[in-house]
Amino acid sequence: MKLNNIILLDRDPKSRWTVEYNANTIDSILPSTDGELRSGPSSPEPSEETNTGGEPASLLLPALSHPHIHLDKPYLLTTNIQHHPTHAHQTSYPDYTDLTPKTGSFSEALSFTGQAKARYTPADLYLRGSQLIATSLTQGVTSCRAFVELDHVTGTTCLEAAVQLKESFGGKFELQICAFAQDPVFSSDHGEENRRILEDTLLNYAGAVEAVGSTPYVESDREAGLQNIKWAIEMALQHDLHLDFHLDYNLGDSEPMVWDVIRLLNEAEWTSKTKPGKTIVLGHCSRLTMFTNKEMKELATQIHDSGLPIHFLGLPTSDLFMMGRPDDDGEESKGAYRPRGTLQIPSMIRDYGLNGCLGVNNVGNAFTPWGTGDPLALASLGVGIYQAGTSDDAKVLLECVSQGARRAIGLETGGAEERESSGDLLWEGRKGDLLLIKNNEWIGCPGHLGLKVPARQRISVKDVVWDPPEIRLRTVLK
């Protein structure tokens, strides 16, 4: 595939480049000649030669990634499949309309999602999951870590749907399955059963599952939470899996468990017992937003000294919705004070040298009843959340939803030395999917207005992050 008249976000925005892309690898990046700028047909679809001659130049980006998304829970609030004209004959799809949030609280979201799980069917899980993946592809996403819950309610139904989706989208979408314990595994009436189901699944579905995850804060007390962490580490080591924790999801004064995670990983000798490329992701972690500079430096020092491949994952769309709600104890608690908490990912990367990325978490359910799951829209939201208004900030945010997200889940492992030497987002020899962003020549106005307005051109990383291009202008190249 030969791409002509290309803008590269790390180069002079006035320069134009020709990129040779074959077998999922960038073979060469050379300055475009005048002939290459003018010759050849224009085509919005990937082909042997994609040329923007006669049209505005296009931008080339790394493909986007979802490092943390719940494959079994999208669109619970918006589906209404029984009313879809092409599915009118179907009667097996569950109705979730009664589970629309009433208070929006975290406890309500847990309760409503638990009720929804009891209604899941294989057809329903497959349909909602396929809608999520198909929508993600149109947004420029070509990979994800997909959490699927395993417990006494769902059994392996969610996992089986994920395996089917992985096969259906094979070659088009890289779906990494994370066997996930959302419910307690060391407390509650069903803890032991939940734990047994997940352990059996890791044995019976070896090869299909690539990561194991848990939620220590749902346990009944701190001791059970510590057991949860230790157990998840043991499962990851025993089955050679990536490790992923939903962790420290609060803004209270409880002792953060991130210190325990580091300690228990060291005690388990993670760095010597795992194969290269196995990562550890810590998601949410809103309690860390209350850390002092001294505490953040100590956290970074412990991680750097241990050599643990820890990546922090910010999930702003869920965190901003859930965090800072008033206590439900009368009018006195409902003042104007509304603290919010989501990991300061750009600062963690820039100021403390930590690994960080961003994810959308949920789309259209009680945990996150807003947003489309578009990673570029998430990066754009980050400009305001993190007060990240420079071009360098925009580059960090773009990496957080593309290559940084892939590194967090162990998918972006090659070419690090070449990238470090070039300092570019894209470089010769880089392997991986690409995203082509088209520039329009004109803004589309209704014909009867008789107006023809020149469109603003996206020529730099800030243009893409600050003003995410419409979905129809994005083309995935594989």
UniProtKB/TrEMBL annotation:
InterPro entries: Metal_Hydrolase, Metallo-hydrolase_Enzymes. Transmembrane segments: none annotated. Residues 29-59 are annotated as: Disordered. One of its GO terms (molecular function) is hydrolase activity, acting on carbon-nitrogen (but not peptide) bonds, in cyclic amidines. Gene3D superfamilies: Metal-dependent hydrolases. This is Amidohydrolase-related domain-containing protein. The lineage of its organism: Eukaryota, Fungi, Dikarya, Ascomycota, Pezizomycotina.
